[in-house]
Design brief:
Blueprint lengths: L1 H32 L2 H30 L6 H6 L6 H6 L5 H22 L8 H21 L31 H11 L1 H13 L5 H32 L9 H26 L3 H24 L13 H22 L1 H4 L11 H33 L7 H21 L10 H24 L4 H32 L3 H11 L1 H21 L5 E7 L4 E4 L2 E13 L2 E12 L3 E6 L2 E5 L10 E5 L1 E4 L3 E11 L4 E10 L2 H18 L7
Antiparallel strand pairs: 1-10, 2-3, 3-4, 4-5, 4-6, 6-7, 8-9, 9-10
Helix pairs in contact: 1-2, 1-6, 2-5, 5-6, 5-7, 6-8, 7-9, 8-9, 8-11, 9-10, 9-20, 10-11, 10-14, 11-12, 14-15, 15-17, 16-17, 17-18, 17-19, 18-19, 19-20
Length: about 650
């Protein structure tokens, strides 16, 4: 039965590849002959291919749960002692499984797109399906011929237990982060294919934008949540006290999110003013290409990262696919340039169109800065033979001013009028925010703040005031017109104009995240080795090691430290229980033992007390700790929740009028 299930998985993904090719051929023949029977058959072949991909993924998932160590992938990423949750997350923990999972999400999206458009958009849909099938073909080719997750272990080898999952990945967040990130990465294929279909069919209106608005918002949100979950995992699991290190793979996820953010703002202008047609096409091409490029960075092995997979032969294939997308897309765009040009122009520097355009430019500049810093070591190694490392200081130096500019535009752009904003409107909109910001500036100067920290906090006050005033004006207008209470007016305002006010909520979440980011300037830390009963001090706190407890668990052995935390002059604050773990401790081969620090954090709105149990010397009974005081980190996560809430409000469909 075990072998038959694995065979079913292999056959399913092989048949999926065959039906994918068949779908492309049938739809291509339909486009030549116009015979609708060919289109129907091609569409059904696409559905069958997607179903077979889903089946093969479920088979691999079953093999992981059942611990079928006859499969090389299962033996490498799970073990008998691996908890069920992490057997499931092993599906995307390795190269082969994650690629199959990539295709699994593509297949799900294909089924949704075909179902949504089963009776509409008959001109675009053949091209949409064919391009999606071409993307699916690329990944199915790799899972079938390059890195097959159903490959058996070498003949004659019997494995009684697997290697188990990397301890860093045995975290609840890592069971959620990769799938969410993939939903974003893969999802950009949908707006990309509709954009290409619009170019091919010559439909240069905003029709394709209306079709992909919610798709774009959803995938942008999914990628954003994936990035935030990755930051949360890094903060909770890696033990270095931060949530963003400008790691190459972190940057690979950030770049398409930045260009997608620019795209979301830019398509508003095309819908409202029929402008930026070419620019929007460029943005969606770049966004999807960066998604594939990010997958290339993760899997090629050219970058050293805690997030990346091992070096493999997939790099050239991915890079070739990236160049193929760019060449094909921009050639098609070049041919359609005359049809995309429009007579409408920006009429005033002080207008919403202008604000959104500046916003776009800054997002692209930031994306380029991240791209250049990420790729510079690779380029220098290729040209000069020596790798010049670009670290966090470069990214911070370049991107902090860019980020502050974006924060400023967050408060300016949305409240400007279309076409032209009069002097009277400018005074009305910004007098109070500027006044409140000046007062805040004075307070911050008196508190001794300076540099980018002071600028960030002042801009946070400015943008928050602007957003609050927008809500206050909307509520007041509804109260005057309908005599509604404040709560009812707020609710009706959100319900009637979800895109606008959902966007304001997103912006407020980003403001709070900036406040949290700025708190990093005040971080304090200490590293020390102590014994039971010893004390040490940091930033007004006293830490006492009261006890070290031991505990043996199903898949690891743990030393658990009991740290008492006292605020000097105030009294006890909390107890922290960081752990030093040894995974696979029962394995007689000590080389397979994997040490891991499971940290503990005491969180308040003001700051985090962050504790890492770095090591334990069983001979001297000496324990090593790293303790950090991280101000304002909570506001990063609170802002993240508000960011997600605002996007969900903007995504929520309006009730159709009967």
């Amino acid at each position: 039965m075990i072998h038959s299930m694995a065979t079913l998985g292999t056959v399913s993904q092989s048949l999926a590849l065959g039906f994918t090719v068949l779908s492309i051929i049938l739809i291509a023949q339909f486009l030549r002959s116009g015979d609708t029977r060919l289109y129907v058959s091609g569409r059904r072949s696409a559905v069958i291919a997607a179903g077979l991909v889903i089946l093969s993924t479920l088979v691999l998932l079953r093999e992981l749960i059942q611990s079928n160590f006859n499969l090389e992938y299962v033996a490498h990423y799970t073990s008998i002692a691996t908890p069920l949750l992490y057997k499931i997350s092993a599906l995307w923990a390795g190269q082969a499984g994650s690629l199959l999972f990539w295709v699994f999400i593509v297949a799900g999206y294909i089924l949704i797109v075909i179902y949504q458009n089963r009776t509409v958009n008959k001109v675009m849909m053949p091209w949409v399906i064919m391009i999606l099938m071409a993307i699916q073909f690329f990944f199915l080719y790799m899972t079938n011929f390059i890195t097959n997750p159903f490959s058996p272990v070498e003949a004659g080898i019997i494995i009684s237990d697997g290697n188990g999952l990397n301890p860093l990945l045995q975290n609840v967040t890592m069971a959620i982060h990769p799938p969410t990130l993939y939903l974003g990465y893969v999802g950009f294929a949908i707006p990309f294919t509709f954009a290409m279909a619009a170019l091919i069919t010559g439909d240069t209106s905003a029709t394709w934008i209306k079709l992909i608005r919610r798709w774009t918002l959803f995938t942008w949100l999914a990628l954003g949540i994936g990035i935030l979950l990755g930051a949360w995992w890094a903060y909770q699991e890696l033990g270095w006290g931060g949530y963003w290190a400008w790691d190459p793979v972190e940057n690979a996820s950030l770049m398409p999110w930045l260009t997608a953010t620019a795209f979301i703002h830019s398509i508003i202008i095309q819908e409202k003013r029929d402008m930026l047609r070419v620019w929007n096409m460029i943005l969606i091409i770049i966004t999807f290409t960066l998604s594939i490029f990010g997958t290339f960075l993760t899997r090629s092995g050219i970058m050293s990262s805690v997030h990346s997979f091992t070096a493999s032969s997939l790099g050239p294939l991915f890079l070739g696919f990236v160049f193929l997308i760019l060449a094909g897309s921009f050639l098609l765009l070049y041919k359609r340039l005359p049809m995309l040009r429009t007579k409408n122009r920006i009429e005033s520097f002080v207008s919403r169109e202008s604000g959104f355009l500046f916003n776009n430019v800054i997002f692209i500049v930031m994306c380029f800065a991240v791209f250049w810093g990420t790729m510079f070591p690779v380029l220098t190694e290729a040209v000069r033979g020596t790798k010049i490392t670009v670290g966090a200081p470069f990214f911070n130096q370049v991107n902090i001013p860019i980020g502050l500019s974006l924060l400023f535009l967050t408060g300016i752009g949305p409240v400007l009028a279309w076409r032209r904003t009069s002097k009277q409107v400018l005074i009305k909109q910004f007098s109070l925010p500027v006044l409140v910001s000046l007062v805040a500036l004075g307070v911050f100067i008196l508190r001794g703040l300076q540099g980018y920290v002071m600028i960030s906090f002042v801009l946070a006050v400015f943008v928050t005031t602007t957003i609050v005033l927008e809500f206050a004006r909307g509520i007041a207008a509804r109260h005057r017109r309908f005599n509604e209470s404040v709560v009812l007016a707020f609710w009706q305002m959100l319900r009637k104009n979800r895109h606008r006010y959902g966007g304001y909520i997103v912006h407020f979440g980003i403001v709070l995240m900036f406040v949290g980011f700025t708190g990093k300037a005040f971080n304090r830390e200490i590293e020390t080795a102590i014994r039971t009963g010893d004390k040490f001090h940091l930033s007004g706190y006293e830490f006492e090691l009261q006890e070290i407890e031991t505990e043996e668990r199903p898949n690891h052995f743990a030393w658990i430290a009991h740290l008492k935390v006292v605020k000097l002059g105030v009294g006890p604050v909390t107890h922290l229980f960081p752990e030093k773990r040894i995974y696979f401790h029962r394995n007689p081969d000590q080389r397979k033992h994997q040490p891991h620090s499971e940290l503990d954090i005491h969180t308040t709105l003001k700051q985090d007390i962050y504790s890492v149990f770095s090591g334990y010397d069983t001979k001297t009974k000496s324990a090593s700790f790293k303790i950090m005081i991280n101000p304002l980190v909570s506001w990063v996560w609170i802002g993240s929740y508000i960011f997600v809430l605002g996007t969900l409000i903007a995504l929520w469909p309006n009730r159709r009028k009967k």
